[in-house]
C-alpha cells in the first residue's frame, strides 16, 4: 500500500468542496455548476423560490383539492383558473371556430383544456389528448400548458409515446423557454429514450430555474449524471491504452516500500537477466517509463534463474496494478509468490490488489502469509497499518506503524503515519510530538514537513501550515528533479482557506502542473478553484484532464461526473444568459 497521501489529500479536497459547496454550486451554476455540489445542490443551495413571471402563474399550487390520480409527479397542470365546463355541443367545427372572436376562442380553448385535465385524472389518456389537441387548434396563440399537458398524456400511455412527448415539450418551450414543468417532462422523456445528456441539460435547467427547490429535478440530475458517468467510464476503460499515473503517484507508491538490494545475477547471466537489472536500476532512479519497458523486455527475452523470475513478475505486476490492470497484476504477483513464497513484498502487493477489489479479508490473509515467511520484515506491518487506516481502525493501524518503526526506525513513512493515526484517534499532543520528533530525525526529508502542515491546516492554523508547506517545497527543490509537487498544491489550498486568495492558490496549482503535468491532486484542486472564479471553460478542461489521469473506475466516474455536470451548467448559461448573470451576482455576494 502506498502512503495515505493520496487518500488524505482527496479527503481534504472533498472537505474543501463541502465547506464551499454553496459558493461552488451557485457560482458554477452562474457559469456552469460543478460537482462540488453537482449532484447535491438542491439540498445545499436553497434559494428564495420563484419561477419566471409566466411560470409563477402556471406553477403555483392552488389547493389540496387538485389531486392527481396517475403515476406522474409532474402531470398536467390543473391549477389555472378554470372556466365553466361547457357541454359537448360547445365543441365547434373548424368553420365555426374561424368565425369566433378572439375572446370566444380563448374561452373555448380553456374549456377544452379543463376537459382534458379531467380525462387525464381518470386515466383516459387518448381522450385527454384529443381535448388538448382541440384546445391547441382553437387557441389564438401557442399556449405552452396545452402542449405540456398533452405530453404528459403521451408519457402515461401504454406503451408510452416518448417521442411525441418530446415534440410537444419542444413546442411548449419554444413558447416559454423557462417553463419548468415542460423542462422536467421533456427530461423524463429524453431519459426514457436513453438520450441522457439531453435529459441532463433539461433537469439542470429546471433545477436552476426553480431556484434549487425542486427535489425531484435535483434527484434527476444526480441519477442521470451517474448513468452518464458510469456508461462513459465503462467505454473508456475498455478502449484506452494502459498508461502510468503521474510521477507524484508512482513515486509515492514505490516510496512506501523500503529499498532492497538488487538481486545477485547467476554466474552466466542471460540477456534477459541483464535487462532485468537495468529495469531495477531504472526503478531506483525513478525513471519509471524505462523501468516498465525494460521489465517487459526482460520477460520476453527470458530470465534464467528463479529469484530473477519472481522479481520480474513482482515488478511487472506492480506496474500493471499502477496502470489499472488489476487482474493482470494479480496473476503476475501470485505467480511471483508461487516461484518464491518467501517474497513478503509480493504478498504485500497482492494485499493491495485485493483491497483495490474490495476484498479486505483476503488482503489480511496475505499479510498473515507474509508474516509466516518473515515476521521481522517491517514493510509488512507498515502496509497492514495502511489497510487498517483506510478502514478507520486507527488504534490497530497505530500499533502496526509502531511495530514497523521498532523493526526499522530509518523509514520515515512509518513515523509519519503513526503521527497521523494518533491524530485520527484524537491524541493530538502525542501526534504533534511524534511529528516534531520525526522532523528532527529526518531534517532533509520534505514529507514530515508536508504532512505536519496538513494537520496544522486541519486545525485551521493557516500561517503555520503555509510555513511548513514552504519548507517542504524548499527541501524538494534542493533535491535532484523531478520534485514532489504535493506541498505546492497543499500551499495553494491553505492560502485559499486562509485568505480566500484564489489567484495565489491557482498560481500554486499552475506551478505544480508545470513541474508535474499529470499530478491528479493539482488538477482536481485547480478545477475547483476555477469554478470558484466562474472560469468554467477552463474548469471543464481540467475535469477532462482529471478523467484522462484517473487510474481506477471510481476515480474516472468521479471525474466524468464533474465534467458532464459542468458542461450541462455551461449550456444553461448560454441558453439563459440573464439567469446566469443573476446567479453570478449571488455567487459574488457570497464570496465577500
UniProtKB/TrEMBL annotation:
Positions of transmembrane segments: 23-42
Compositionally skewed regions (Basic residues) per UniProt: 57-68
Keywords: Membrane, Mitochondrion, Mitochondrion outer membrane, Receptor, Repeat, TPR repeat, Transmembrane, Transmembrane helix
Main location: mitochondrion
Topology relative to the membrane: Single-pass membrane protein
Location(s) in or outside the cell: Mitochondrion outer membrane
Gene Ontology cellular-component terms listed: mitochondrial outer membrane
SUPFAM superfamilies (alphabetical): TPR-like
Pfam families: TPR_11, TPR_16, TPR_19
PANTHER family documented for this protein: MITOCHONDRIAL IMPORT RECEPTOR SUBUNIT TOM70
Listed name of the protein: ADP/ATP carrier receptor
